[in-house]
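Subgroup meeting minutes
Present: P.N., E.W., G.H.
Scribe: E.W.

1. P.N. recapped why we're keeping a running log of single-chain structure predictions: easier to compare across weeks, and new members can see raw inputs and outputs side by side.
2. G.H. added today's entry (182 aa).
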Amino acid sequence: MRIAAPRLYSLLRWHYSGSLGHADLSESVGTTMARAWIHRGAFDRSRGSLWGWLWSIANRAAIDILRDRSKHPSRPLHRDLESPQGGGQDARDDQEDGSSLDQRTLIARQFLDSLNPRDRRIVEGAMSDTRGWTKEIADELATTPGAVRVRWLRLRRDLVARFEVGEKHRGEASRKETADGS
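Output recorded in log:
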C-alpha cells in the first residue's frame, strides 16, 4: 500500500486536475486506503488487477467528494488554493516522495484500529458505497438511521482532525529541519 498511495495520488491529480485540489486528492487517497483495508477480502485477482481495483475505489472516492461539493456550493472545489508559503500553488502538490500520503494512510489505519466494534461497523457501512447503508447499519445496531448518520459525521470529523494534526506536525517538523539546516 505504501507504493500505491503516491501512484493513486498522481493518477487522481492528472484525472481530476481542474476539479480537485491537494486536500481533496489526499482525502480521496486516504478514503481509498481505508476502503481497501476494510474490504481487503473482497479483492479477487481473477476479476482484475490490484491497481484496477484500487483505481475504481479511488475514482469513486473522488466522485463522492465532487458530489459533496455540488451539494454544498458554498464550499469551494479547491479548499487549499493558497499555500501556506504563498504563491497560489500548494507546494505539497509537487511532492513526489508520498510521505504525506504514507502518513495519512498510517493515521487512517490507526484510527480504524482504535474504534470500538460499533463505530467500526458504522465506518465500514459508510465506506461500502451501498445505497441505504444507514438503514442497514441502524437495523443491525438497533438504533435509528439518523443516529447512525450523526455518529458517522462525528467519526469522519475525528478522522479529518487527526489528518490535520498529522499535517501540522509534519509541517512543523519540516520547518524545524529547514531552520536547523540554515
